[in-house]
Amino acid sequence: MTARLTTIGFDADDTLWQNEQFYQMTQARFLEMLREHTDGEQLPDRLLAVMMRNIKTYGFGIKSFTLSMVETAIEVTDGRAPASVIAEILAAGREMAAHPVDVLPHARETLEALAGRYRLVLITKGDLFDQERKIAESGLGKLFQAIEIVSDKNRATYERAFSRHGDGPASSMMIGNSLKSDVLPALAAGSWGVYVPHDLTWAYEHAEAPASEARFREVPDLAKIVPLIDEIEGR
After folding, report:
1. What is the DSSP letter of 141?
2. Are 12 and 176 in contact (CB under 8 A)?
3. Which residues pair with 149 in a beta bridge?
4. What is the mean pLDDT of residues 62-70?
5. Residue 23's closest CA among 49, 3, 58, 48?
6. pLDDT at res. 2
7. What is the pLDDT of residue 17?
8. What residues contact 192, with CB distance under 8 A and at least 6 apart?
9. Which of 118, 109, 209, 124 is nearest to 161 (CA)?
10. Confidence class of residue 100 from pLDDT cuts 50, 70 and 90?
11. CB count, 10 Å around CB of 53?
12. In this structure, are strands 119-125 and 192-195 parallel, antiparallel, or unpaired?
């Protein structure tokens, strides 16, 4: 018998509010900053390589991204990047960290509809300070029974979170826009995994949809979450 669903986990960035668009806007600005100093065609790939390398040291988030832009600028100019460019990169990072939170459509009403029926857990990765700011500014934090800000997301993350705040993974569902971080490890832990695509997704988060997994579902937007859960629950 399938365990009754008691706990719903939600990702934050690009699931409940916009995030990736600000990174892409800043990256475009970064490319323009260095246009006069290096070959721009390979710059996006160079930046991505530095970001991947730095995740192990700095983790995810705006601070890591900003440091990676600085490092990339130094590397691609052989140490000749002007101080004015470095200062502009740092200013761009500060602007990202201060950008108003843009809550995605259907986020609030979906959370409000589920809050009385299930234990809601926000599970998000990234910089602690930035994530706390966005949670506070979004006004959605009060709808969650628990909030987990983690350095990364893997099977152990969901086993721990759903055991700590719920009745274990088998009675839980994770909802998010990243197959790699939100869906696949949650399924591996034994939870339901629901993919809600976003128009913009960072290359790091790309993965193949696990179409053959019995507990995998995909919906076009958050408005379809409550009907999906009702269907799973046999309502």
Report:
1. G
2. no
3. 124
4. 97
5. 48
6. 62
7. 98
8. 5, 172, 173, 174, 186, 215, 216, 217, 232
9. 124
10. very high
11. 12
12. unpaired
The answer to whether 10 and 183 are in contact (CB under 8 A) is no
CB atoms within 10 A of CB 148: 19
Kindly give the interhelix angle for 225-232 and 107-115, rounded to the nearest 10 degrees. Answer: 30
194, 183 Cβ separation under 8 angstroms = yes
44-71 average pLDDT score:
95
What's the order of all strands across the beta sheet hosting 172-176? 146-150, 119-125, 7-10, 172-176, 192-195, 216-218
176 within 8 A of 150, measured Cβ to Cβ: no
Cβ contacts of 175 within 8 Å, gap of 6 or more: 8, 9, 10, 11, 15, 182, 194, 196, 225
- Of 197, 127, 185, nearest to 161 by C-alpha is 185
pLDDT at position 116 over 70? yes
- Short-list 190, 170, 225, 184, CA closest to 7: 170
Helix (H, G, I), strand (E, B) or coil at 56: helix
The contacts of residue 22 (CB under 8 Å, 6+ apart) are: 96, 99
Q: Do you know the residue count of the chain?
A: 235
